[in-house]
Amino acid sequence: MEGNREMKQTAKLVLALLAGFALGAGAIQALQAQGVKTPAYIIGDVVVTDGPAYQAYAAKVPETLKPYNGRIVVRGKPVPKEGAAPQGTIVMVAFDSLADAEKWYSTPPYSELILERQKAAKANIYLVEGLPQ
Prior knowledge:
This protein is of the alpha+beta class.
């Protein structure tokens, strides 16, 4: 009998989560329909292994951002306040939309630089959609 009660509670929780996701998705679509911008960010935790090669790569990146209105908004070592600090330098690039960030990363000229970065550094790279502005 207790197992049956737990299953019902689990089912209620799952339904509540699904309803929350549906409402959230609907709200985002409504905001986008109203012309509210949803920015996106490429975030990297970069450990440079070949300084000169990385500097050569980094010098080429700003020009690749221009067609997508990408802006480097963070580049530096983090100051840990809680938890373990990342090993490398944090780099964050802002875009006006998720589509712009995806296009920048996956098409030339930037996509042609990825291998160059990978040879000069170890990195964890993330694409994150921001909150509507």
